[in-house]
Amino acid sequence: MNYILSGLIGMVVIALVLSAGAVGYGLAHVRAWRAPVIAACCALTLAYGGVGALLTSVVYTRLTQPVRTTAVQTSPTSAPQSSPPAVADQQPQPATDAWLRFQSDSQDYIGAGKNELWTLVESDFTMSASGKGDYWQLEFRAPSNGLLKVGTFINAERAPFVTGKAPGLDIFGSGRGCNTLSGKFEIKSVRWASSGEIVAIDVLFEQHCEGGTPALRGELWITTQVGVHKAPPDMGTPIIF
User: Model-level pTM?
Assistant: First the structure.
C-alpha cells in the first residue's frame, strides 16, 4: 500500500504548489488591500493543506485497515463470508469444541520438533489459546486483507507485515516466533454469525521460518456451536498439505 500513500501525498503536494503559484501571481498584481489579501491567501493555503493531509490519512487508513476474524488460539484477520465485518473490540467466544493437531520438523523453531494434539480436555481455546503448557497464536489473512473464505492460499508472508496482494500467515507462541516466513494455508470450512463473530473454522497450514526447509504443519478446528463435533485426525497419520 506504500505506492498508494505516495501517490496521494504527491497529488496533495502538486495541488499545493499550483495553489501557491496562483496566489503569488495574484499578489503580484494586487494594488489595494495588499496586507489583508496576503493574510487571507496564507490562511486559505494552510487550510487547503490541512484538508489534503486529512483526506490522505483517511483514504490510506481505509485502504489498509485489517478486518478481524477468529479461531482457536488465533487472531486471524479477515472479514466473514456473506456476513458483516467483525467489530474490532468484539469479545471472542470460548469454543464449545476444538482441537489443534500439528507436526513440527526437528529443526522447526516454533513447534520444536513436537507432534501433538491439543483438545479442550487439557487446553483452552478462544482467540488465543494455551495448551499443554504452551501458549500459541495463529493468524491468517486473505490477500489484500480481503475475504477469508474457503480456498487455498499460497505464497503467504508474515501476516502483520504482508506486502501487496500476498496472503498472510503467522503462527507463534511461548516466546518463539519467525522474523520472516513463508507458507500456505487452506480454509476447509468457515462459518460466521450475522453479527460477524466466528461460528466455526477448519484450516490446514504449513509454515517455514526464515526461508528454511523445516516446516510446521497442522490443522485447526474450532466451533462455538453447542453439540457440533468433528473427530480429530489419527496421531499416526502424517499431515499432508
Answer: 0.63
